[in-house]
Amino acid sequence: MTTHPTPGPTLDFSSERGEKPAPERADLLGGAGPSEFGSFDAHHPPAQELLDDCVHCGFCLPTCPTYALWGEEMDSPRGRIYLMEMAEKGEIPLEGSFTTHIDRCLGCMACVTACPSGVQYDRLLEATRPQIERNVPRSRSDRWFREAIFALFPYKRRLRAASLGGALYQRLRPKSMDKLLARVPERFGRLVAMESLLPPVSVRDAFRRMPERTPGIGPRRGRVGLLTGCVQDVFFHPVNEATARVLAAEGWDVIAPREQACCGALGLHAGREAEAIERAKKLIAVFERAQVDTIATNVAGCGSSMKEYGELLADDPEWAERAAAFAAKVRDISEVVDETLADARARRHPIEARVVYHDACHLGHAQKIRSEPRRVLRAIPGVELLELPEAEICCGSAGIYNMLQPQAASDLGHRKAGNIRGTGADLLVTANPGCLLQIRKYLGADLPMLHPIQLVDASIRGVRPPEMG
Amino acid sequence: MTDTITPRSLDELRDAVIDRPGTIRIAGAGTAHDWAGTPEPADTVLDTTGLSGIVTHNPGDMTVEVWAGTPFGALQTDLGEHHQRVAVDPARAAEGATLGGLFATADAGPRSLQYGSLRDLVIGATIVLADGTVARSGGHVIKNVAGYDLTKLLHGAQGTLGVLARLVLRLHPTPQVTATVAASCERSAMAGLARRVADSPVEPTAVEWHAGRLLSLLEGSESGAEARARRLAEILGSDAAVLAPDDATQAWEAHAAAVRARSDDRAVFRFGVTPSELPRVLDALESATGVTASPRTGVATVALPADADVVATAHRRVAEAGGTSTLRQRPAGAALPAFGPAPASATVLRAVAASLDPDQRFGRGRLAPWLPLPDQTGQPTGVSA
Amino acid sequence: MPERTMEAPHGGTGNDAPGAATPPVAVGPELARAFRDVLPADLVITDEVGRRSYECDGLTGFRQIPALVVLPRDADEVAACVRVCARHGVPFVARGAGTGLSGGAMPVADGVVISLQKLRRILEIDVENRRAVLEPGVYNLEISKAAAPYGLYYAPDPSSQQVCTIGGNVAENSGGAHCLKYGFTTNHVLEMEVVLADGSVVTLGGPTGEQAGPDLRGLFIGSEGTLGICTKVTVRLLQTPETVRTVLADFPSIEAAGDTVGDIVDAAIIPAAVEMMDSLSMEASEAATGAGLTVDAPAALIIELDGPADEVEAEFSHLTAICERHGATRMHVPAEAEERQKVWKGRKAAFAAVGRISPDYIVQDGVVPRTRLAEVLTRIAEMGRDAGLRVANVFHAGDGNLHPLVLYSEAAGEHDAAEKLSTDIAELCVELGGSLSGEHGIGTDKACSMPRMFSSDDLAVMHRVRHAFDPDDRCNPGKVFPTPRLCGERPGPYRPHPLEEAGVIERL
Ligand SMILES: Cc1cc2nc3c(=O)[nH]c(=O)nc-3n(C[C@H](O)[C@H](O)[C@H](O)COP(=O)(O)OP(=O)(O)OC[C@H]3O[C@@H](n4cnc5c(N)ncnc54)[C@H](O)[C@@H]3O)c2cc1C
Ligand code: SF4
Ligand code: SF4
Fold it and tell me: Going along A136-293, which residue ranges are E strands?
């Protein structure tokens, strides 16, 4: 691996808006001069053919959340691709403005959906982020913060500890704390953001474990391996339970291997490629041992990165094939349930509710799964499904984005909450824990929020859905 | 002494403009000679009626190029042979008005609800400027965005800025059938009733109120138009009926006659406001008679006493409601304000006029006071960008 | 990239540059400071990466780095920015979504880009009067979305409607598939607030079609940002038609499809839209959208009728009979709105989708009289063969508006040949009695072809009018009008410039 020198003054690239302008351009590339890949190093820079696909038509602008917020070309997909192209030609350094604008990208992939020219922005971004992680020195506070996140999130044990702290803390914390936090200076904004995201979680839920094996009811459809997830299992344990129940009710044996750990999605989407690769390998091995037909996940972000394992490990002869085989088996839970709708075994009991479904970006945009969850929900008698204005625009959660870019995330969160309120729904469902956390923060207690599978589960069991009282 | 000259070709027209010194008043059939601002006495009257007839008509392309002095009625008759028409119906057409005259006065009739005015149908023009420059803009195709749409500048210019020599127009097929639904209705009720017409799916070509009736015009195919008319009559209820063809013709003729009526002591005032303002403004014009109103476009034509204060007040009312107004025919010699208060854009108008006709040779006085008369020294006043 | 960069015609240096009379251009910290006095600092973009992001619009072949970019948030701030430009004698370019395909929003050297992307509010949907009041940055499609709950919509529908702005539409007089029946932007805009070059604000047009004095609104629409910046637009809304019927019909040849269009016109049917696609464009679009186009059909028409049910049903059977008479090989009549949307998506995504079948391409936009469609298509095919380049066709057949897409590979060095072919096609349209542009405008791209369509007198008159609005050439200078600086550098038949011979060139 060659690292590209990026000399010049080290500014604080903490990626907040309104920061100092970037250093003036390419002369700063210094004596080393542009490499064959311009300002990128030789390790998988964004491929020129992929960059060429962009015809600069701008169709992707309106659904890009950062463009919706700021209307600046550099913070649009078209602009970011243009920046990549300039960097590829060595006309601008990675450090500075380039990093700022790429950092601000939520990776929501709304642009991929909108693009008629078939630009694979997902691949471009996944090639660019590691370049930044490798080649751009981050400020100390930024580095510290990113490390903190990655030291916490992917580890169930640490998350449980944090959640325990959180649970106690939420109960004990004085009301005045909110006011105090509202006044802390901007640069602590991220800490505040992280703090306020901690969801209300009961100690019991946080420490519940999934059974390794839940037998299917009636004639068996097959063996499904369930990814329990890191955040999901700690903060949304009931979703995993509901998932297992629904799968079992529809005739699947559900295998939830104990030794599984984080799938690496959070790291992958943040450009921490090496870390993501290690996690992927471990997970593949775990599910190979479990000998399952299908690998189901109820977390949109995990699903989208597991489906990409094939590409992530393509360079590794030992793993390429295994990764591809794994990826081919991955299904979002809504896909699995949707396939069974034609001959559903479990009777659905009516639930009278006006339900608004929020497309998680990693489901709708990254995996193009939009109609499946809707069909699954419509199969519940009594459910009236409402559509959300600006459905394509991200809620601002985007993995760890809401911690790294709290201002943008908060603007998007408010926007989404406003749109949701406008529908007059009784219930919000969405298939990603990040979205649930984020939306809950801005919608407050206005509306019960569930994972779609929880609604299906309640319908099959004939009980009131949780949170709906 | 005013001389009249009647050019018969583009060259003659240009030569006339170059050769004649001094000011020029452009005249077509003279049906609107007393509209808008009162023209200053001119050195020459340029009669456009010698520039008449179709230049080219391509039925398959649905476009026609005509000389500006062509009487509108004659053009429609010619086009009718190909089952085509220019889809506007200004009342003055019946008096022999020329295309150029209708264009320069921005005149339009009831069908403007669907088709707009001539500005919406013109796709090109040839004009002659005061310095003899012959300029073309637009072209022969319906869709064309090359260069400035200069033609539009002459729409409503009232014979200032330049002489229209030729116009290229977009055509529409003549409908197989027209049907009219009449509903008796007080003026105070017209807005509500017209809204019901608009909200129905029948898509009327025109909706006009006149003499205690709301008339809705439906045009289309043989089976379609009549079915729509019956449907509309049903929607509007017991006071509405589909008129027999003769009655329909009569009703629309009466409407047009009211619009072009001349009287010895009244002036005709034409204005446009947003439809929801229309009833209020009409009510405020207490002395108005002979009202024809288009409740869905917000345009109305009324007769007012030929009194400067009354007319000035009417202009002001319309301006307060955010609309525009122009005075039309009036008793000979009556000194009445032609326009309301000058909008901010009058500065642009002056600058454009100064660029195209710096000496105000054409139609001096027609757009006064928005375009003020040149001062004694012959320099236009108030020109600034 | 740099080798393709055209230097903007307005350099502020050469004595042929318009505005040479204005004081020397002061770009630099002083100008940035002046803008920061009227805008928050982060809305004045001075860093190179930011400025370069704005160096081109949808036509990437023309690039120019602006001195700086500003993002005012409302009409007052736009006026304030224009006044800063006026005070400093700096030219400016308004920018909407930057989807223009003629280089209209390409910056001017040492000039300012005024982006209107923060003026995105829909100020009013007036249901009673059927109009909407909009800020210029509102996306075209958003208007119809906002009006839909009231059974209303905004008719002009450029293929780029999801992203292009109403301000850009006004500047370009944009059209779309449904403009055959309903007209173009100019037929739907009633009133506009405009900031002039000196920073003053005027209203053009009025609340109705009724007009007192010349139609300045009509002049401004389609003037490509050279007469001022539009900061507020009032548009008409139409009632959603009761019935919409669409047919996607495949034909054994382009000629058969063309004849069908002619017969539809002869039958006195005015469809809401008649669009034609050839097999190459269908191939691309199908790959992008899966709209259900027949990829191996030589040509297809998408014909849509809308209006009251009674009319539409009668005309529709007539229409399908005409298609059958011309040997339509397949007729697909989408049953539901959703399916219809899919067909339209196939059409509207066509330009951008061509990116899938060719590394590079040029979208051309010319118009011929409808009766000469078959002729022009044959000639285009010949010209393509001669140049050794593929040309895909997708166009508004109803009004003779062609969009030949010249496919080429930059890497294979085909750029110049492609550009020449594309220009030749546009000029062929003029030769056949048509126009250089039906909707994308002249901008930078076609300024040099203008003398093919207009005489030097025509152009000089347009220029006089321009100077009435903008005496110092500060609004988007160098666009629309040919300048020796721009056209002298171009290859091809433009030298010597006809205007040079005519001695008018100094004025331009
Ligand atoms: C894939 C694709 C398909 C297209 N299809 C069509 C089509 O079917 N029909 C069609 O007509 N066009 C089409 N276009 C062209 C383009 O979308 C239109 O010209 C559109 O109106 C441009 O809008 P914009 O907001 O992107 O303007 P920009 O590209 O930003 O600007 C265009 C011009 O308008 C000026 N301008 C922008 N805003 C203002 C303002 N507020 N006041 C004054 N001047 C302003 C700019 O200076 C520039 O000269 C297409 C483009 C693409 C990429
Ligand atoms: S991934 Fe989302 S935030 Fe990033 S450029 Fe695409 S649309 Fe914008
Ligand atoms: S929609 Fe696709 S091709 Fe168009 S600008 Fe965006 S990424 Fe590029």
Answer: 213-214, 222-227, 252-255
pLDDT mean across residues, chain C: 88
C243: enclosing H helix or E strand:
strand C243-251
> Which has the minimum average pLDDT: A200-214, B38-52, C29-43, C54-68?
A200-214
**Which residues in chain C are contacts of A58 at CB distance < 8 A?**
58, 97-99, 160, 163-164
Q: Between A21, A56, A89, which is nearest C58 by CB?
A: A56
The boundaries of every CATH 3.30.70.2740 domain in chain C are: 358-441
Please give the pLDDT value at position A141.
74
Q: Is the CB of A337 under 6 A from ligand 3?
A: no
Quick one: CA torsion of C420, C421, C423, C429, rounded to 10 degrees? 160
| pLDDT tens-digit series, residues B372-383 | 998 744 444 443
Range list of H helices, B69-111:
72-80, 99-104
**Nearest by Cα to C202 from C459, C434, C468:** C468
Strands A427-430 and A353-358, how do they pair? Answer: parallel
For ligand 2, what atom is nearest to the CA of residue A80? Answer: 5
Determine the pLDDT at residue C492: 36
Nearest to C204 by CA among C196, C135, A244, A169: C196
Contacts of B138 (CB under 8 A, 6+ apart): B122, B123, B124, B125, B144, B149, B150, B151, B168
Which pLDDT does position C12 carry in this prediction?
34
Take atom 8 of ligand 3 and give the residue whose Cα is closest: A54
Tell me the ligand closest to A54's alpha carbon: 3
Q: Cα separations (Å) of A245 from A210, A242, A255, A430?
A: 11, 5, 12, 18
Contact in structure between A387 and C148 (CB atoms under 8 Å): no
Angle at the Cα of A457 from the Cα atoms of A451 and A462, rounded to 5 degrees: 130
A230's CB contacts (< 8 A; 6+ apart) are: A153, A154, A155, A156, A159, A261, A262
What CATH code would you report for B177-258? 3.30.70.610
Q: Is C137 on the interface with A (CB under 8 A)?
A: yes
Q: Which of C104, C111, C115 is nearest to C226 (CA)?
A: C104
What is the per-residue pLDDT for B383? Answer: 39
> Does the B263-329 domain belong in CATH 3.30.70.100?
yes
Under 8 Å CB-to-CB from B229, ≥6 apart: which residues? B179, B180, B181, B202, B218, B242
Whether A9 has a pLDDT exceeding 90, the answer reads no
**Each residue's pLDDT tens digit, A47-57:** 998 998 898 99
Distance C101 CA to ligand 1 centre (A): 7
- CATH number of the domain at C122-239, out of 3.40.190.10, 3.30.450.40, 2.40.50.140, 3.30.465.10? 3.30.465.10
pLDDT at site C314: 85
Q: Which atom of ligand 2 is nearest to the CA of A104?
A: 3
Tell me if B152 and C219 make a contact (CB, 8 A cut-off): yes
Residue B225 has pLDDT above 80, yes or no: yes
> What is the per-residue pLDDT for A5?
33
| C contacts of A20 (beta carbons < 8 Å) | none
Mean pLDDT of B347-356: 97
Q: State chain A's mean pLDDT as an integer.
A: 82
> Which residue in A48, A44, A105, A45 sits closest to A80, CA to CA?
A105
Choose the closest CB to C352 out of A17, A55, A74.
A55
Mean pLDDT in residue range B355-379: 87
Domains annotated for chain A, with CATH where assigned, are: 12-135 (1.10.1060), 140-205 (no CATH), 209-338 (3.40.50), 348-468 (3.40.50)
pLDDT of C506 over the 70 cut:
no
Question: What is the distance of C-alpha C81 from the center of its chain?
Answer: 25
Q: Fold for domain B3-173?
A: 3.30.465
Tell me which of C54, C69, C70, C101 to substitute to probe ligand 1's pocket, judged by most ligand atoms within 8 Å of the beta carbon. Answer: C101
